[in-house]
TrEMBL record:
SMART domains: FAS1. It comes from Hymenobacter terrestris. Gene3D superfamilies: FAS1 domain. Residues 65-197 form the FAS1 domain. This is Fasciclin domain-containing protein. It comes from the Bacteria. Residues 1-23 form the signal peptide. The lineage of its organism: Bacteria, Pseudomonadati, Bacteroidota, Cytophagia, Cytophagales.
């Protein structure tokens, strides 16, 4: 995957500012393999993976003409992510540059964090920490679901690793389930997930 135009690094960026709400984990638009380390396992077609009803009803059917931020801001179930992007100073990064692949947590995923954790992260003094968590959800390039393989590791914009697990048609990223895949934007793709990914 290409690693050019990575403004997220300067902010310890997170989750592709506000357009993280849609997407697909695919490298179809890039050829550089530096960002992903595939295993020798066979590719599983994500088109057969179950899609949760909440993902299907997010209003993400016609998204390719909008950037990642615009798509995220238009989805009520992504309002917490949008607020986090603004608080971290990363919202503007999702409007240009890329392409990026974003694994976007739903509001319910943020609600599942320990009590008080989100409020604490949204404080101005924790801006850098929040940005670091958000950038952990962003991978350079447009990675479609069909490009993912079981056991594969993909590298985030900050150089950290995410583990892909595919079992029985269900795709998981570090244990978070993809509930809607391959939501295209003008500058990338979004895969909606049901948990917030926390860097180790």
């Amino acid at each position: 995957m290409t690693t050019t135009n990575l403004p997220f690094r300067t902010l310890a960026t997170v989750f592709i500012a506000s357009s993280l709400a849609f997407g697909s984990v695919s490298c179809s638009n890039t050829t550089d393999t530096a960002a992903t380390d595939s295993t020798d396992m066979a590719t599983t077609d994500m088109a057969t993976a179950p899609v949760a009803t909440d993902g299907a009803d997010m209003g993400m059917d016609d998204t390719s003409g909008k950037n990642l931020a615009e798509n995220a801001m238009g989805v009520p179930q992504m309002s917490t992510l949008t607020a986090a992007l603004k608080a971290s100073g990363l919202a503007d990064k999702a409007t240009s540059g890329g392409p990026f692949t974003v694994f976007a947590p739903t509001n319910e995923a943020f609600d599942a964090l320990p009590a008080g954790a989100l409020d604490d992260l949204l404080k101005p003094e924790n801006k850098e920490k929040l940005a670091g968590i958000l950038t952990y959800h962003v991978v350079p390039g447009s990675v479609m679901a069909a490009d993912l393989t079981d056991g594969q590791e993909v590298t985030t914009v900050d150089g950290k690793k995410l583990k892909v697990t595919i079992s029985g048609g269900t795709v998981m990223i570090n244990g978070a389930t993809v509930v809607k895949a391959d939501v295209k934007s003008s500058n990338g793709v979004t895969h909606v997930i049901n948990q917030v990914l926390m860097p180790q």
